[in-house]
């Protein structure tokens, strides 16, 4: 089954990345088709595996401050900053709705 | 050999460094390096020289030129991951493995080229262009006559290095450094190692710290080691392995660096040949080389048995789902605010993020992010993501069963064929290629097992073919011991680079030392 336009838009919104053209959508279709092969495997009674190191205890260190105070270095790579703040454009403005946006998805 | 030469004063670290740097310049057409850190390298070499003069070298690696894949953070040096998203990004810190190398006195020559964000199996999809396999320029490579060769490209027959750590493999193979770091998530260190005729080691997941390695798939990534011989790999492993408090996924067991014994008796060894690795598409040449290797072990007295890893063919599908899902999550950090590329779009936070990511990522990356998000949607989570995790357990269990039955190492091919010419490779898209090429290497990442590519023989076209050994979890010593024995038996030929030979013959002689240990 083909992926619906609603799901495609939803994905673009979640990922904040666009399909760009029909080829991008086709790529997703193929990816889903490829992944469908998983359903041939019988996994009854099998627990999902998160990590190959699941039998071991994760290392947690003491809650002591051992490093830090590197504000200057961290800010160096940011393009826009003011004093010790990263500057972002205003938030709480939703991405333009499909009708207003220029996207090829309108055509499908 | 080189370390001994340094100790005895037959060559100095600065001389060595300068020779490597000039070799890098003369092999620029390979496009193996993205950034060459000439000044800092020379400074490191000078510091090393001082230590040798005082008779106080830091260790075997002191003064040895190395290269690092460009997805490891290196303080003060640009780290791009071959992507527009990180162009101009100067790391504020060293990845733990980089720091360890520097602490041992190694000389960091530069950052090597890769597929964008380590996604790919050809080292052809980065923004700095594809990496050329040094073997394309060897005397041994028999060029196919290309009737419709385009006149702009002087060498239309050059072959790919494999990926995604192609730059590192090419750098080691062309003698511009003595060891290089790569990363391995689906075979990204072993694949180019096989195509470039070098040793590529993927350590057990959890042995070497990933702190500072820009993550692709947190549950499968490991730093990989590329060297010209197995002994060198053991030396580098010795300096890198061990618990890192900055990486919680490193195990806390004490790691003791080891020297590899010269194995002479393999009669107590049990080698497993997984029949599913006779995958569709495996070239008859490689099949023959694989069989010969199995016979080699048998004739030497080892027990060679056929084994089965029934879920092998699902490992690629499983990887596809888990990888894209983790990638979707890991790439979310690139929003243009704190570092990296930032779009000029300023209307709202979201539109700035969207524009930045549209401009910064290539098609491969975006494709994976979108697929990953699809598999993680609420309605798909159980069906795809959880399902893939279950299949992962089945794959890991396959290995456990086989190893428990008495098998010490598994012997498999590393790639389906020898390196393809670039013009042919790009005819198929990245995902198809990755799915085809990763098939033999991927399962080891799925199960977190150590695996190593050992260059074995030359194909009919005169290109390297390697075989892979997979070992028990955290049993690198055993794995490398067997690999070293095998390496000695096959006597893989040294690359005869024509371009380089024209260079100072004396330089080439020194570079020719295969190992540094």
TrEMBL record, chain A:
Alphabetical list of InterPro entries matching this protein: Asp/Glu-ADT_sf_sub_c, GatC
Organism of this sequence: Furnarius figulus
Gene: Gatc
A GO MF term: transferase activity
Name listed for the protein in its UniProt record: GATC amidotransferase
Pfam families: GatC
One GO biological process term: regulation of translational fidelity
Any one cellular-component term (Gene Ontology): mitochondrion
Keyword line: Transferase
TrEMBL record, chain B:
GO BP, sorted A to Z: glutaminyl-tRNAGln biosynthesis via transamidation; mitochondrial translation
Keywords: ATP-binding, Ligase, Mitochondrion, Nucleotide-binding, Protein biosynthesis, Transferase
Domain spans labelled Amidase: 20-480
Gene Ontology CC annotations of this record: glutamyl-tRNA(Gln) amidotransferase complex; mitochondrion
GO molecular function, one term: ATP binding
Record protein name field: GATA amidotransferase
Species of origin: Furnarius figulus
